[in-house]
Amino acid sequence: MTNFTNVQVIAPNFKKRLSGVTATIVRLVPIQARDIGIVATGPVLPEHVPQIPLHALITMPRRPARVWHARRNVEMIGGLALKYLLRKNLKLVFTSASQRKQTKLTRWLIRRMDAVVATSDKTAGYLENPATVIMHGIDLEGYAPAPDRAALRAKLGLPVEGILIGCYGRIRRSKGTDVFATAMAGVNKRLPTHALIMGRAVPKDEKFLQSIKDEVTKTGLTDHFHFLPEVPVEDMADWYRVLDLYVAPQRSEGFGLTPIEAMACGVPVIATRVGAFEQIVTPQTGLLVDTDDPAELINAICEAFEPPCPIKDWAKNTRPHVAEHFSIEREAAELITLYRRLLKKS
């Protein structure tokens, strides 16, 4: 039988396939477990994450009070079922990263939560309920600048000299990968560069990826574009470290961790005004541009490297900025403060 004696918080993850929510739980729970009794629960979780089996929820003691931290509709429904059908003493929390008006079902579920967390000010603006803004953070030990960038480039089979600019993540229209490719073709007319495009296109987006490759072929710049396969999470930091600049050209985004990961590696960022990017990227660490505007993106990239070369100052500021505002320890601590406040009221 599962021992619930020290369990104060439960973080459900009801999805089998890897997603941003799953990644958040896998990153956060082990760190939160240092300071509070927290476990995850779900069908597929790595062994290192403190967890309990799903079936144990049925026999979970009704008292004392515990926090149920949901991040999806299905998990809010699960928490409500446990609370009202099985009479478990739960304080229900929901984290929203969405930047659009929620469906009627989602709004109904949120109204029944004891607390709501938004991952950015912009996200909070879409919620009917008052929300506590707690932005995501990253592991600063895992993401740090390269001691020898030229050597790392050589090791990864990349051009050792010259300017490398990257765009990483799922390849689909909402991510703006096509805008990045178009812009980089234009940048090469003013500034010799290499564009690194890394990520996975699911079957429905394979035509989109192929259309980007076809457009690059038409420009005659194929030697300046590197289409790279998705790599394991633990290898990602190296692919940021080799860059001179990271570009996040999304048309839409819930939060968006990649600019933070890049900046932690000492890489400046140019991003669109979506997700939490307006709170992540400052004038001291990079630039913000409008969505779907390759011409503006071309100018922003070129101006970063042209005299007076602001990218040099941005590079000095990126990691200190992330360390101050976007560490995963800060995110964990702010959530724990919320949990304890709810438990104190029980």
> Element order, helices and strands?
EHEEHEHEHEHEHEHEHEHEHEHHH
Distance between the termini: 26 Å
User: How would you sum up the major sheet?
Assistant: 6 strands, parallel
Give the total of beta strands.
12
Oligomer: single chain
Dominant shape:
elongated
Report strand %. Answer: 15-25%
* CATH domain class name of the largest domain: Alpha Beta
Helix content range:
25-40%
CATH architecture of the largest domain: 3-Layer(aba) Sandwich
**Could you tell me the radius of gyration in angstroms?**
22 Å
Mean pLDDT: 94
Which structural class should the secondary elements be placed in? alpha/beta
As for the number of domains, it is 2
The CATH superfamily of the largest domain is known as Glycogen Phosphorylase B
Q: In which order are the strands of the major sheet placed?
A: 2-1-3-4-5-6
Number of helices, counting only DSSP H or I runs of 4 residues or more: 13
CATH level-3 fold name of the largest domain: Rossmann fold
Report low-confidence residues grouped into runs of 5 or more: none
What does this entry look like structurally?
The protein is α/β, with parallel strands linked by helices. The protein folds into two domains: about 150 residues, Rossmann fold (3-Layer(aba) Sandwich), CATH 3.40.50; about 180 residues, Glycogen Phosphorylase B (Rossmann fold, 3-Layer(aba) Sandwich). Helix content is about 40%, strand content about 15%. It contains 13 helices and twelve strands. The strands form two sheets. It has a six-stranded parallel sheet, with helices on both faces.
